[in-house]
From TrEMBL:
NCBIfam families: PRK07827.1
Entry-linked SUPFAM superfamilies: ClpP/crotonase (SSF52096)
GO MF annotations, alphabetized: catalytic activity
Family statement drawn from the similarity comment of this UniProt entry: Belongs to the enoyl-CoA hydratase/isomerase family.
Species name: Saccharopolyspora terrae
Pfam (any one): ECH_1
Full protein name: Enoyl-CoA hydratase family protein
Length: 258
C-alpha cells in the first residue's frame, strides 16, 4: 500500500506532507495512522526544530473520509481517533506550522486550527460543512473556537458558508494569507523565526500558552515567576544570554540560519 503521508527533514524543518489527492486528502484510517506516526517521529527527532504540515494536490484536507463513515456504528467511526490527533498537534513541544495552498473543510479546518501558526494562499477556501450533511462540528470546535470570536463562530458553524484565505486571516483562523506565489516564502519566514528560539524555551512557552491559568493573579504570578526564573538559570537560558553578550548566534540555531 502506497504511503499517504510523507516526512522529510531539512535545515531544522520537519515537513509532513499529506499526499492522498485521489480523495482530497480526506482523513482516512491510513492517513490518520501515518500522520500520527510522522508527528511522533518529528517530535522525537532532535534535528527537527519546527514542524510544517503541508499537502500535495489542490486540496489541503476535505475532512473525515465519508466513504469509511457510511454504515459504521458510532463506536466504529473514524472521528473517534481524531481528538487524539488534534491534541497531538496542539500539545506538540515543537511549533507546528500549517501550509495551506488549497481548500480545507470540516476536519481539515480543525487541523489548521490545531497548528500554532497557519499560513494559506489567499485563494484557499475554508468551510465548516458538517451541518449541511446533518452532522455536528463538535470535535474540531475544541481547536477552532479558541481561534474565533463568538459571532464569527456562530455564523460560520451554523451556515456552513465558504470563505477565503483573506477572511480566514481577518477572523483569526490564519496568521497570514498571501498570494499563492508567495506561500513558500511566507512559510519559510515563519519557520526561520521559530528556529531561532531555544527548543526547551519554545516547548515551555507553548505549554504556557495552552495550559489553563490559575484563577487568582497572585497564584498566576507565582507560577509564572517559577517558570521564568527556572529558564533564566537553566542551561539553555545561560547559553542564550552568553551568546547575546558575545554577539553570536546561540548554539541551538540551525547552521543554515547562522
Amino acid at each position: 500500500m502506497d504511503e499517504l503521508v510523507h516526512f522529510e527533514v531539512a535545515d531544522g524543518v520537519g515537513t509532513i506532507t499529506l499526499d492522498s489527492p485521489h480523495n482530497r486528502n480526506a482523513l482516512s484510517a491510513q492517513l490518520r495512522r501515518e500522520l500520527k506516526g510522522h508527528l511522533d517521529a518529528a517530535t522525537n527527532d532532535d534535528a527537527v526544530r519546527v514542524i510544517v504540515l503541508a499537502h500535495t494536490g489542490k486540496v489541503f484536507c476535505a475532512g473525515m473520509d465519508l466513504k469509511e463513515s457510511r454504515s459504521a456504528d458510532s463506536d466504529q467511526q473514524g472521528v473517534n481517533e481524531f481528538p487524539a490527533l488534534l491534541e497531538q498537534i496542539w500539545t506538540s513541544p515543537k511549533p507546528v506550522v500549517a501550509k495551506v495552498a488549497g481548500p480545507a473543510r470540516a476536519g481539515g479546518v480543525g487541523l489548521v486550527a490545531a497548528c500554532d501558526i497557519a499560513v494559506a494562499a489567499e485563494t484557499a477556501t475554508f468551510a465548516f460543512t458538517e451541518v449541511r450533511i446533518g452532522v455536528v462540528p463538535a470535535v474540531i470546535s475544541v481547536t477552532v473556537l479558541p481561534r474565533l470570536n463568538a459571532r464569527q463562530a456562530h455564523e460560520l458553524f451554523l451556515t456552513g458558508e465558504t470563505f477565503d484565505g483573506r477572511r480566514a486571516a481577518e477572523i483569526g483562523l490564519l496568521n497570514s494569507a498571501v498570494p499563492a506565489d508567495d506561500l513558500d516564502s511566507e512559510v519559510e519566514r515563519y519557520t526561520d523565526m521559530l528556529a531561532l528560539g531555544g527548543p526547551t524555551a519554545l516547548a515551555a512557552t507553548k505549554s504556557m500558552l495552552t495550559n489553563q491559568r490559575p484563577e487568582s493573579m497572585s497564584d498566576d504570578f507565582a507560577e509564572m515567576l517559577q517558570l521564568s526564573a527556572r529558564h533564566f538559570a537553566g542551561e539553555e537560558g545561560q547559553e542564550g544570554i552568553t551568546a547575546f553578550a558575545e554577539k553570536r548566534k546561540p548554539s541551538w540555531v540551525p547552521e543554515a540560519l547562522r
